[in-house]
Amino acid sequence: RIMRPDDANIAGNVHGGTILKMIEEAGAIISTRHCNSQAGEPCVAALARVERTDFLSPMCIGEVANVSAEITYTSRHSVEVQVNVMSENILTGAKKVTNKATLWYVPLSLKNVNKVLEVPPIQYVRKEQEDEGKKRYEEQKLDRLETKQRNGDVIFPIINPEPHTVGYSQSSLIHLVGPSDCTLLGFVHGGVTMKLMDEVAGIVAARHCKTNIVTASVDAINFHEKIKKGSVITISGRMTFTSNKSMEIEVFVDADPFVDESRGRYRAVSAFFTYVSLSKEGKPLPVPQLLTETEDEKRRFEEGKGRYLQTKAKRQAQMQQAAQH
Amino acid sequence: RIMRPDDANIAGNVHGGTILKMIEEAGAIISTRHCNSQAGEPCVAALARVERTDFLSPMCIGEVANVSAEITYTSRHSVEVQVNVMSENILTGAKKVTNKATLWYVPLSLKNVNKVLEVPPIQYVRKEQEDEGKKRYEEQKLDRLETKQRNGDVIFPIINPEPHTVGYSQSSLIHLVGPSDCTLLGFVHGGVTMKLMDEVAGIVAARHCKTNIVTASVDAINFHEKIKKGSVITISGRMTFTSNKSMEIEVFVDADPFVDESRGRYRAVSAFFTYVSLSKEGKPLPVPQLLTETEDEKRRFEEGKGRYLQTKAKRQAQMQQAAQH
Amino acid sequence: RIMRPDDANIAGNVHGGTILKMIEEAGAIISTRHCNSQAGEPCVAALARVERTDFLSPMCIGEVANVSAEITYTSRHSVEVQVNVMSENILTGAKKVTNKATLWYVPLSLKNVNKVLEVPPIQYVRKEQEDEGKKRYEEQKLDRLETKQRNGDVIFPIINPEPHTVGYSQSSLIHLVGPSDCTLLGFVHGGVTMKLMDEVAGIVAARHCKTNIVTASVDAINFHEKIKKGSVITISGRMTFTSNKSMEIEVFVDADPFVDESRGRYRAVSAFFTYVSLSKEGKPLPVPQLLTETEDEKRRFEEGKGRYLQTKAKRQAQMQQAAQH
């Protein structure tokens, strides 16, 4: 579809969140279709996890987004989908890869939302494809356990913060979940949640560096908990780390099904977003360093540095590998 | 994309206007891409005309709309696009043709919106395709001249109307044209206009018969005049004809570029929409007969009857032809 | 959240209606949460009244709106909420108070929408807070009775009106109530109604003065009647008064639950909006005087003048009081 002014920031760059939402919708369609392809209980595929995603080039207003999705692995209860987004300038015909994402879905019964159904297996062209998929499946399973533990953290408000401190840019947003945010099961689409997370992360980044910013990457996101229609969700973001030209923001989503008394407020999702600041010519600009004050902030900064260096090392390894071929 | 609650009426049937908007967006993308495929002045394809469209089966919330577009003819200054919409129930895998539409676009220069550029010719597989396309081109050209003359008509307000009269159900809506309604040239997308027209026509139909209604068909629509960002548009609809099970509604779009003093209010588009009323089981219901009072209303009723009988005859001829093959 | 192009007019000023909608959403969340904080029947807080609100400074595209809400008084069956909106330019860090609003909510049972539940009392820090709240409660109760009587008025269409007359700028809009417009109870959010009212009032103001206009204030609005999902609402506005630099517009909302035959069209809300016209530098411009023709128009003009002078006197008294401290 054509990118509209509301999909973009004031510099005309499409929000990463808009792209994540399109990716998730494509993934939900293809995996729901697959899981219902055999006779049996009807089901809706729910997003369980998105792998780390890099935004390779910013998309602009007026460009057309081409989204294509493919099922690349199935385990007994989950589906791996790869989604590619190309941006196309229909005036010049130029096409660029915007990003590639890997998503995991789980089929939930339409009659009983707590029942996970079995996934029909796909056919692999080569045996290695299945083995590699299985490896990816085991890796993500481990990672999902880890985030589940980290999820207890809370963002406290800070009064009269100094510029460039964590408290200065931290932000939160509340949203009342409406019908169009939800799947047929009455739970929020993962893509809607990611769009809101990107919105908050973008505000944190802009408050910190006060220039035009764009989403550079999103770390793996695990959806441990469903969010029901009518809930109020609070999305909070705080900066955890800055390198010379990038900012890492941690985002939490808390759901409050406040009319339904049976359950209190709970942490639904959390994730790390990385932003860069762009000049008018689209070149990355240096960003102000984050001032850490408390012990926790210093620890999170070091952890962020660890993630940053690890990603950098991985990318260099990939580039060397590519150069050798 | 997946149909959401906001795309549908309370009975769960997707608004015809939502479908028309998707069709027009697909047409605008493919024809803008084609017109920019050769080196030269960049341009944006603007909708000039939509041929008569039948809605073959209602689409529902949760279904996925598959839209495909193809260029079928090019004249020197216009492009004919055929768009097919299939609705897919991803739970059952069932697919149905929702509708097929033919649209005509004209490439306008990005630098000078009043300049119509030349269209690169397409290659035809068979010579007859070009001849048939040329015939369609000539036919629509004639029809466009006709509506241009009809466009002077105005809807007058009526005080305290009786049920089932024209005045009782006539409705109008105003809309301030926002940035997301517009193309890169700053003019309203034809699809946005059609969606609003369907909204008004649907309200007229519902006011008349007070039951669940769906768009059955839209007569050819000619876009004679562009509508600029920031304009206020008034969309008015009145019922012109009822058969036993269908209602014909005439819709006018008037634009008022009220910040720009150089031009007063003008008629931008007009069209006929046909609606049917559906029971809970999806069967067409009888509709109350329209009570005509003035001479003009009686004349319009007769004209509507003419269109109705003509369409019916055409459809029967097509069915006989199909039966013979 | 960040203000988007669609939230604003072509001059980049955010619509007052967008801000009113955010305010109401915050109020609905905090009061629904409070009313469900004690064990008992689950309920949804419905907007009963908004006190007069001044828009202190216009918000622009790209700014972030910070909305904070606090419960300031509870009676047996109602909750008073104060909501503050700050606009923040995240590039410069500049913050401005956009407006402060006071809203009254009533808890309706989720099981039986006609049953008003009891509100858990709040704790006051000082005894005077409770007394002052009670005074405000009694005052608004009186005012609600008054508007109920005024609500019979109707806007008649006028044919071929002269510029600057009441008939020339009067406007109306119809809207089909969709699922996203509604609360869990299936009734329209007060904020959605206010946004539509501001949209109509803004079109009336723009038609009258044909320049860039912004909402300056909204008089107290009483929500006497609920509006059900699937209804058609007609929002009509007419200008009642002009001072040198402001325009007062009266807006009526009529609901037609047309699928549900048990009830005819009824008046749901009415309110007065005040608009000013701004130059490119953001300075208020003189506005053309309203030409009154009929006796009713002259009477309404005088009443509007009364409200204008009363507000002006109040504001001067407040400024003197502030200067003395």
Automatic annotation (TrEMBL), chains A, B, C:
<dbReference type="GO" id="GO:0052816">
    <property type="term" value="F:long-chain fatty acyl-CoA hydrolase activity"/>
</dbReference>
<feature type="active site">
    <location>
        <position position="198"/>
    </location>
</feature>
<dbReference type="GO" id="GO:0006637">
    <property type="term" value="P:acyl-CoA metabolic process"/>
</dbReference>
<feature type="active site">
    <location>
        <position position="9"/>
    </location>
</feature>
<dbReference type="InterPro" id="IPR033120">
    <property type="entry name" value="HOTDOG_ACOT"/>
</dbReference>
<keyword id="KW-0677">Repeat</keyword>
<feature type="compositionally biased region" description="Low complexity">
    <location>
        <begin position="316"/>
        <end position="325"/>
    </location>
</feature>
<dbReference type="InterPro" id="IPR006683">
    <property type="entry name" value="Thioestr_dom"/>
</dbReference>
<feature type="region of interest" description="Disordered">
    <location>
        <begin position="295"/>
        <end position="325"/>
    </location>
</feature>
<feature type="domain" description="HotDog ACOT-type">
    <location>
        <begin position="1"/>
        <end position="111"/>
    </location>
</feature>
<dbReference type="Pfam" id="PF03061">
    <property type="entry name" value="4HBT"/>
</dbReference>
<dbReference type="InterPro" id="IPR040170">
    <property type="entry name" value="Cytosol_ACT"/>
</dbReference>
<dbReference type="GO" id="GO:0005829">
    <property type="term" value="C:cytosol"/>
</dbReference>
<keyword id="KW-0378">Hydrolase</keyword>
<dbReference type="GO" id="GO:0009062">
    <property type="term" value="P:fatty acid catabolic process"/>
</dbReference>
<feature type="domain" description="HotDog ACOT-type">
    <location>
        <begin position="167"/>
        <end position="281"/>
    </location>
</feature>
<dbReference type="GO" id="GO:0052689">
    <property type="term" value="F:carboxylic ester hydrolase activity"/>
</dbReference>
<keyword id="KW-0443">Lipid metabolism</keyword>
<feature type="compositionally biased region" description="Basic and acidic residues">
    <location>
        <begin position="296"/>
        <end position="306"/>
    </location>
</feature>
<protein>
    <recommendedName>
        <fullName>palmitoyl-CoA hydrolase</fullName>
        <ecNumber>3.1.2.2</ecNumber>
    </recommendedName>
</protein>
<dbReference type="InterPro" id="IPR029069">
    <property type="entry name" value="HotDog_dom_sf"/>
</dbReference>
<keyword id="KW-0719">Serine esterase</keyword>
<keyword id="KW-0963">Cytoplasm</keyword>
